[in-house]
Design a protein that fits this description.
This protein is of the alpha+beta class. The protein contains twelve helices and 16 strands. Belongs to the acid ceramidase family.
Length: 391
């Protein structure tokens, strides 16, 4: 947390004070269908055939997104060189991480090898790209119940904090390079949809997805001293009794057949990193925030419409604690949800909430909207014109 605060003030030195908290704006309206300067484009759909060999599943996507993936990985390496100028970290990426891939669970290890082969990106760099999100993902997720009992699950995926601030363009380097990699993926088996996800091309885990007509799921990072880097280090050293967060969410979306089963797996499975799992079901009242340490489910928060809790909302701070004052996206998001009211909640109004600064910020790569009762997932690439918070 100390490093986080230090880096915050480093960024402030490069950012106009008009963007400094408590910079917020009035709750937006009329933002849907997506339009205007906050909308950079719809997300392209692809199919991943789960009946194919794992090494072949991502070939079409990677063929289309090869150059974007190469640019992204190069930027990560450039950042690594800035922190470790001796080049030793890059040597570790190229020599040690390829050895790590076979320790990863099947089929993810084979999918990663296939991505490396299809893209021409060295295997170690593809491994790095796939463990990147275990360490730092900043997001806003919510599930709301409308007056008819239908559940709407939505999220902003924010990524790239402290990863190269472009002073000229007032943007994060990694965030902007991720946007062209955003894809929607229809995972199919026996010619039928199993689940759908919004993903980054080249990344085999899941951060956002829907098992149509069954449940919806998003994952947000949880900051902790016992963080993802500890779990990854333990994994490298041979202690492998925990599960990678994004591999767990992928497995749940692929294999769980009910809200209750998904909830149990997300609550009980030992993890490499702490996390927030935001889960929605297909019945009235089925939504929760699962706050995880690496070993325990802490103080779960359930939807409780009868007592006025018609939505649950998570950013990156425990719901029973105040968020960091420099990074309070929760308060403006809840203000806008409360202002909307349950009577008016819909895909349109939820998109308005996620379009309100600082819920929408310079880190926001995409917004996803899901309606489980319709088996629906739609996503949009976002932009945050100035004045806009850097996070």
């Amino acid at each position: 947390m100390f490093l986080r605060v230090v880096c915050v003030f480093c960024v402030f030195s490069c950012v106009s004070m008009q963007y400094v908290p408590p910079f917020t704006e009035d709750c937006r309206t009329g933002m849907y269908p997506p339009n205007g300067p906050t909308f950079k484009g719809a997300v392209t759909w692809y199919t991943v055939d789960l009946d194919l060999l794992p090494s072949k599943r991502w070939t079409e996507i990677i063929t289309d997104k090869k150059n974007e993936l190469i640019n992204m990985v190069q930027a990560i390496k450039d950042l690594a060189d800035e922190f470790v100028p001796s080049g030793r970290l890059e040597e570790l990426i190229d020599k040690a991480l390829p050895l790590m891939v076979d320790t990863l669970p099947y089929p993810f290890n084979e999918e990663i090898k296939g991505i490396a082969a299809a893209s021409g990106v060295p295997l170690g760099e593809v491994v790095l790209f796939n463990i990147f999100y275990e360490i730092f993902t900043v997001c806003t997720s919510l599930v709301a119940e409308d007056p008819d009992g239908n559940l709407i699950h939505a999220r902003n995926l924010d990524f790239g904090l402290f990863m190269g601030w472009d002073i000229k363009n007032q943007s994060w380097v990694i965030t902007e390079l991720l946007k062209p990699l955003v894809v929607n993926v229809d995972f199919r088996r026996n010619n039928s949809t199993v689940f759908q996800s919004t993903n980054f091309a080249g990344y085999v885990g899941m951060l956002t997805g829907v098992r149509p007509y069954m449940f919806t799921l998003t994952m947000n990072e949880r900051f902790s001293l016992d963080g993802g880097y500890i779990g990854i280090l333990e994994w490298i050293l041979g202690k492998r009794d925990g599960v990678w967060m994004s591999f767990l969410t992928r497995s749940v979306l692929e294999n769980a057949t009910s809200y209750a089963e998904a909830k149990k797996l997300l609550s009980d499975t030992k993890l490499l990193a702490p996390a927030y799992f935001i889960l929605g079901g297909n019945q009235s009242g089925e939504a929760c925030i699962i706050t995880r340490s690496r070993t325990h489910n802490l103080n779960p928060l359930e939807l409780d419409v009868q007592h006025g809790r018609w939505y649950v909302l998570e950013t990156n701070y425990d719901h029973w604690k105040m968020p960091l004052f420099l990074d309070d996206r929760r308060t403006p998001a809840m203000k806008c949800m409360n202002q909307t009211t349950q009577a008016n909640v819909s895909i349109k109004t939820v998109y308005d909430v996620l379009s309100t600064k600082p819920v929408l910020n310079k880190l926001t790569t995409y917004t996803t909207l899901m309606e489980v009762s319709k088996g629906k997932l739609e996503s949009y690439i976002r932009a945050c014109p100035n004045p806009c918070m850097p996070w």
